[in-house]
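Tutorial, part two.
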Amino acid sequence: MTASKRPLSVTILGFVYIAVGTIGFAYHATEFWGAGAFRYDTLWIELVEAIAIVCGVFILRGRNWARWLALAWMAFHVVVSAFHPFRELAMHAVLCALIAWLLFRADARRYFRGAPVEPT
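Running the prediction step on this input gives:
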């Protein structure tokens, strides 16, 4: 038997994490020297964006810890958006639920577990 194939939904989600992290990292990199002084808050934002890239790469490589980190990354955004307008909180909550569903469906669990594929 062969190792489980990566589900399309997991592939797409991995690339979305990489894209979101990369775009966010590039966007916020310009904010390091706001008002002529180094901004430490931007350093934390960049770290969060780098974590998204790491999640995406290792989701594509089938690492189980990466799917948990990806879900925690999105849950973090739900908590942070609680201090913003309700619409933002609702959107992050819906995205978090969708990501959890995609990463913990039966086919995704088999992929991250590295279980053999059953003959069809």
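The two ends are 12 Å apart (CA to CA). In part three we will examine how such features are distributed along the chain.
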